[in-house]
Amino acid sequence: MAVAGQPIALSSPEHQNWRRAMRAYVALTKPRIIELLLVTTIPTMFVAARGVPSPWLMIATTLGGTAAAGSANAINCWVDRDIDALMARTAHRPLVRSEVAPRNALIFGVVLGVVAFLWLAATVNLLSAALALAANLFYVLVYTMGLKRRTTQNIVIGGAAGCVPVLVGWAAVTGTVELPALLLFAIVFAWTPPHFWALALRYRRDYARAGVPMMPVVAGVAETARQILLYTILLVALTLMFGAVAQLGMLYLASALALGAGYIFAAVRLLRVPNAATAQAAFNYSITYIALLFAVMAVDAVVFSAA
Question: Which CATH number among 3.30.43.10, 3.10.105.10, 3.90.1720.10, 1.10.357.140 corresponds to the domain 23-306?
């Protein structure tokens, strides 16, 4: 009971437990991965609109996309809780630390996915909702449950799920999926293996301990670095092709060339000196690369359409 003249305690045990539970459920959705997905979704909407899309449409798509991605990630945590416990990189996740009961995590993920579908169907359009649902099912059933523990191509094929947000963004604006959207899908598809393999090189002992056949574990460091370079070259070629197909201007072209040259340099450096430091540097650059590339797309679409 509060005493007159004394402040009311805001850190009661019940309040602290509630906050811990909320943080644990948020962690299940893997917010940093969701940020990367939104980095590609929103700029795609600018390109599709050839300018600034409706603010409400961007908000609705962002909320629906966040819920959809969070759903897939939460179910992924439920499926992978056994191997997450074996890897230092994932040992802090809520299910490993028993902060959330496995059954509750699964229910949370499924409910979040249903809410995402209904929200997108009601506020954006049915095509965007169907694409988001398809990405979730692909990520959980094909990648997490089917490929991840069976093949070195897990992230190549399974990475397609992370490419769908650009289709969702395009469909949100246009109501359809056109050639530029498919090229954006291809760009993210080519970006995913060098991005993730650089991280896998950094934590290859983790994956080996968990028995996950990531490329560095099965094919070795040198071959993985070679594959990273090849995919990076393909990626840069696709970004240049996209500029022509989407009729973007010189701002995008110059930026795609400069950013692509930087990425190829990072990949060549990794091939020549394949160690933890160069792998981490390549991984860090891959995040900067995709964020800046899509940001420039959005800026170019607005400036070019206004010119």
Answer: 1.10.357.140
